[in-house]
Amino acid sequence: MQKVVEGINHWIKRLPEEYNSMSEKEISNRPLPNKWSKKEILGHLCDSGINNIERFIKIQYEEPVYVVQSYNQDQWVMVHNYQDRPLDEIVNLFQTLNKQIVNIVKNIPNEKLSNLCDIGDNQHKTLEWLIQDYLEHMEHHIHNQILIKNYDL
């Protein structure tokens, strides 16, 4: 879990620097009408944090096997209206949520990391897997969309 904590802490520090180096056009432009802007992608990462905080906590104490509830990602981004919110608010939310996730992960007893959850289609994964997947999901969006200079041009 130490590598996950280090990875999340890295992005808590680096993502604001990356966004602050971009123009308003670069962060707000949608590459296609049905694609998120870089600002909305950051908002999506906040929504992922919100949903995973609950999962990381509940898997530790609810009856096994904890069933992970999915959420409508497009609706969450739309309802939060990230596109029209000031970037600094979204960046602060991202940092705060991920600091909380780091705190949760650091305090999970080792024996709880093997607790199982059902991620859908009757696939059972451990809490440890879910936490690692959270960072992988974050880095997927960061490397393939946020850090790509021509993503939305």
From TrEMBL:
Gene3D superfamilies linked: dinb family like domain
InterPro entries in UniProt: DinB-like (IPR024775), DinB/YfiT-like (IPR034660)
Transmembrane parts of this sequence: none
Organism encoding this protein: Peribacillus huizhouensis
Biological classification of the source: Bacteria, Bacillati, Bacillota, Bacilli, Bacillales
Residue ranges annotated for the DinB-like domain, each copy included: 15-142
Protein's UniProt name: Anion-transporting ArsA/GET3 family ATPase
Top-level taxon in the UniProt lineage: Bacteria
